[in-house]
From TrEMBL:
Keywords: Leucine-rich repeat, Ubl conjugation pathway. This is FBXL4 protein. The keyword Chloroplast does not apply. CDD domains: F-box_FBXL4. It comes from Pitta sordida (Hooded pitta).
Amino acid sequence: MSPVFPMLTVLSMFYYMCLRRRARTATRGEMNSRRAIESNTRALPINVEIVQYAKEVLDFSSHYGSENSMSYTMWNLAGIPNVYPSSGDFTQTAVFRTYGTWWDRCPSARLPFKRTPSTFCSQDYVELAFEEPVYPTAVHILETYHPGAVVRILACSANPYSQNPPAEVRWEILWSEAPTKVNGPQARQFTPSIKQINFPTNLIRLEVNSSLLEYYTELDAVVLHGVKERPVLSLKTSMIDMNDIDEDEDEEKYGCGMDTLNKQFNIVTLREWPTNGYFDKLPYELIQLILSHLTVPDLCRLAQTCKLLYQHCCDPLQYIHLSLQPYWARINDTSLEHLQSRCTLIQWLNLSWTGNRGAISVSGFSRFLKVCGSELVRLELSCGHFLNETCLEVITEMCPNLQELNLSSCDKIPPQAFNHIAKVGSLKRLILYRTKVEQTALLSILNFCSELQHLSLGSCVMIEDYDLIASMMGAKCKKLRSLDLWRCKNITESGIAELASGCQLLEELDLGWCPTLQSSTGCFTNLARKLPNLQKLFLTANRSVCDTDIEELAANCTHLQQLDILGTRMVSPASLRKLLESCKDLSLLDVSFCSQIDNRVVLELNASFPNVFIKKSFTQ
């Protein structure tokens, strides 16, 4: 046979697959924005484009600012720009709580969950509502300081201003990318190429990862461009990516519909095979070890291949540690119901960011914990807005072995509900950042949870007397290793004295933005002398920190690794040099807005101590 005929056959097959792929994408109108077929597609000009700024900030995971202020808060993302195109550190912008890898390198750092897919790297999020639902054509993000944190942009089918909630809430990823380091902190307008979706939206979600940044990223505004009528796609295509021909993976990789994951959880009819090939020769434990490297969706897909692998993939030992946070948009009551039989031995469970807008009900969450809660040691529920008092009561009743509980930014839980946590006497870690916990409930928790080692009370604005809280900690929580009192408004030298005397194992203490602490009372000197194990100390925005405090830290806290004295006017270069010479492990020193520490001093210190990251922020 002439060699030309096989070549014609191959070309014919290739042409057929191209046509099939084109028809499929044209029918659905959904394409991967990072593939070549999207970049050459053009929407026909049948609509007038609408340009709108965010009307309202609906939800977010954290922010640098106070709950009772606008400075550095996510609420600054609503409306027109306040700062852009200026660059620098401005209070009128939106700033998340953390940056870099410093928070992963301190005593309070939590161990990561295995099986987290490499494509999920989000650390924080903010959700924005716009006035008019549109089919998005562009999203502009105005970044004014240390840009590059945004890693995902999503659109939601639910209209936050509609009186009739939809039967199903869909999230579509408009754009996503791994974290990238941007050269320089200067302002920019970030406009990634977004995917086209088949529903109008006025709810946009930004997810960020600040791990590569040298300082806090600051966002000023978000602009949504879109049209009222669904665009018609032109089929003019000059190039087709070969990856598009292999299989239709768009829905699995980028779709956030709940049905997608739930179908994978379902039991399917499995074909009988006479043998299992080489798998029959492998020990059960070895197969389990191999499967332990798969993500949850991959494990569910593999379970649909044959009975042997179904048995392995549904073994509760595969679900000892389970993080559903990467799939937050697809998890609902049905998902939890399908997972129940597989999670009877679960010890670590991460449901952070899941269940909002009715996806998980109180009854669905309660049913799951009644079956799967007996062995739970760690439970992550950050930003779980479905949680109420019943949920906390179920947690304390069904999880007798619980040691770690994260309720960060669960700001819908009523104050009285936190009393139930006191029943979990085995708690070693409790995160209550941005919750409505009140003083009475917190005192009860501290009284009965004497095993606490890590406690976060940052931005808990409903506590009236932090001195009383600190006194209780000093009396009852002798094992405390890390304490977050970020933006606690009323702690004084009296509370610090009680805390330092009773909790001498403290390795990490965050007293950032605590305005009632004054160096003249000797509170910081007392801390340095009583807490020799300190590795991280944040005294952010305390204007009274002085040379005496720094010298006491140099003399007594030689294990110090991270120190934040942003904003002080009283610290000289000489005392900082003493600190750097004494604390050999110091890796982070934030001297932003310290009036005696100019850029020349920072350069000199950097030259003498190259292993220390010395941060000097600016405003222009």
